[in-house]
Amino acid sequence: MDTTKPEHYSQNRSLQQNIGVELLQQYMRWEGGDTVLDAGCGTGEICKYISQQPGVASVVGFDVSPDFISFASQHNSSANMRYHVSDVSDASTIKPEWQGAFSKVMRPAHSFIPSARLQT
C-alpha cells in the first residue's frame, strides 16, 4: 500500500479500518460528553466512525501529513470533528489547549491510553 498518497491509502485500508472498528466495538465504552483525540488519524475514517457513536461530543484528529489532513477534512468530516496537522513526536506542534482536554485518546495502533497519562 502506498502510504504517501491519501487517496490510495484511504481506498486500500479496509482491513485496518475493519480491525479498528472491531476493537472499538469490543473494548471502548463511550460515555456522555466524551471528547476524543485520535493521534495519527491518517485519512480520518476512524475519526468519523467515532464521531457517530452515541455519547461522543467531539473528536479531534491529527496527523503529521498535511495531505492526509486535507483529505480527511474533505471526505471524513462532521459537525463535531476537527482535524489538525500535528506530530505526536514533536511537542511544539501540540496545541496547549489540548492538554487535559480529552476523555479518551486513541493511537494509530488502535490501542487506547488514559488521557491522564498524556501530561507533558
Q: Which descriptors apply to this entry?
A:
Rossmann fold; SAM-dependent_MTases_sf; 5 strands; about 120 residues; Methyltransf_25; disordered C terminus; polyprenyldihydroxybenzoate methyltransferase activity; five-stranded mixed sheet; alpha/beta
Helix-strand blueprint:
Blueprint (H helix, E strand, L loop, with lengths): L5 H6 L2 H14 L6 E6 L5 H7 L4 E8 L2 H10 L5 E5 L18 E3 L5 E2 L7
Parallel strand pairs: 1-2, 1-4, 2-3
Antiparallel strand pairs: 4-5
Question: Whole-number average pLDDT?
Answer: 85
Give the CATH level 1 class: Alpha Beta
Assembly type of the chains comes to: single chain
Query: Structural class given helices, strands, pairing?
Result: alpha/beta
CATH domain fold name = Rossmann fold
Total discrete domains: 1
Q: State the order of secondary-structure elements, H for helix, E for strand.
A: HHEHEHEEE
Percent in helix: 25-40%
DSSP strand tally: 5
The biggest beta sheet reads:
5 strands, mixed
InterPro entries: Methyltransf_25, SAM-dependent_MTases_sf
GO molecular function: polyprenyldihydroxybenzoate methyltransferase activity
Domain Methyltransferase: 36-93
How would you characterize the overall build of this protein?
This protein has a single domain, classed as Vaccinia Virus protein VP39 (Rossmann fold, 3-Layer(aba) Sandwich). It has 120 residues and is of the alpha/beta class. It contains four helices and five strands; from the N terminus they run ααβαβαβββ. The chain is globular. GO terms for molecular function: polyprenyldihydroxybenzoate methyltransferase activity.
